[in-house]
């Protein structure tokens, strides 16, 4: 049987030459975010293939590519928070600095003085300018040498769908954000960024071996097969979260959110799996009107939510809810709001050494599992055809789709609508003067940084900020 996933046995001349990913054991002490583009080896194949089972020379197989942020913006930008700390020691100058912060114009406003540092030289390279994805991060400012605890990636798994689309190459898409917390949370998120795609691929192969998955071309007109395929992917995602949590190596000194989007490369459905408070958006973009519309947004897992709170309290846990939430105050764009927290005592039950966690589900946080914290993901399936039913033929032809996955360092201070607007224009606006997707991500990260500085002027705090952006190229099978 011909495998619907292409095993690339060439020496990857078609790709930039990058080393295969190192195993986690070689990287687990690293405190620097993963960067660059890497080829994925045979461990990342989504389906098994008997043709290579007896092939002793499989080291050159390229199953896809994975993109981490090109750079941590903190290495390119001067730290504004340090400037403010200096001026705090000088009352008159600090007052002037505070006034400057409060009146600094938005980087998103017309005529702003935004000058990208990531985009130097990009406009001279049309291939980079035309890229329809971006991954970027900036380390936060949390007093002292606290590392960036965000990890993010965009992975493309090669597939062969020649029976579906006449030989045109396609890829399955996976986007992930892992926002670590706790003293060693960056090690948990680092582990997840490396291991999650590999565990997922292994679970997909295992399902093919135990319950044969339908061929991709059978999705053309077979609703039962389509449901089976959907359930197999949902099951593989769920098992990946549970397995990643069980194998998380720290067991008690850190944790992480996990927010993952997966599009299998054919058909009309996208899968979003989440634990924690990171966010994925799916956005439609009208090319004629240059307008973005959010068509999907995942639910964050906050301790005060009725079902989450009940599970935690039933397990003997304690949820603290600030008065602002009890009074029903909503979020205010550009303003950092209070959040509910679940209290995780240390292993000896000492309340004075407890952790107040701002989410009700996570990977890691070993001590929290006994008081209702869980790594079981909430999995949503979004079907583009459901959205298209609202449109006429001309509107369908005029509409494209993209996805954004980002940490709360972005969405705590910027509205999803504003983020979708700027990234949609960067992806699809064909005017030559418009910025690239990577430059648009930098603009948003720097605007979020400005808002963090404005909101926390007394304490000088900024969360880590990470964005993953990609067009979704839907490949219809009917």
Chain-wise SSE layout:
Blueprint: E1 37-40, H1 50-53, E2 64-67, H2 80-88, H3 91-103, H4 126-129, E3 133-138, E4 150-159, H5 162-165, E5 170-181, H6 185-210, H7 223-246, E6 255-256, E7 258-263, E8 269-275, E9 279-286, E10 291-297, H8 306-314, E11 318-320, H9 323-326, E12 341-344, E13 355-357, E14 363-364, E15 378-383, H10 384-388, H11 393-397, E16 399-406, H12 408-411, H13 416-428, H14 437-455, E17 465-472
Antiparallel strand pairs: 1-2, 2-4, 3-17, 4-5, 5-6, 5-7, 6-14, 7-8, 8-15, 9-10, 9-16, 11-12, 12-13, 16-17
Helix pairs in contact: 2-3, 6-7, 13-14
Protein name: PPM-type phosphatase domain-containing protein
Domain PPM-type phosphatase: 132-472
InterPro entries: PP2C, PPM-type-like_dom_sf, PPM-type_phosphatase-like_dom
The name of the CATH topology is Phosphatase 2c, domain 1
CATH class: Alpha Beta
Taking pLDDT < 50 over at least 5 consecutive residues as the criterion, the unreliable ranges are 1-29, 50-56, 86-90, 121-128, 161-168, 330-334
Q: Give the number of domains.
A: 1
Separation of the first and last Cα atoms = 22 Å
Report the major sheet. 9 strands, antiparallel
The CATH homologous superfamily name equals: PPM-type phosphatase domain
Mean pLDDT equals 80
Question: What amount of the residues lies in strands?
Answer: 15-25%
Shape designation: globular
Name the helicity range: 25-40%
Tell me how many strands there are: 17
Structural category is alpha+beta
CATH architecture assignment: 4-Layer Sandwich
Radius of gyration: 23 Å
Number of helix segments? Answer: 14
Organism: Discostella pseudostelligera
Domain PPM-type phosphatase: 132-472
Protein name: PPM-type phosphatase domain-containing protein
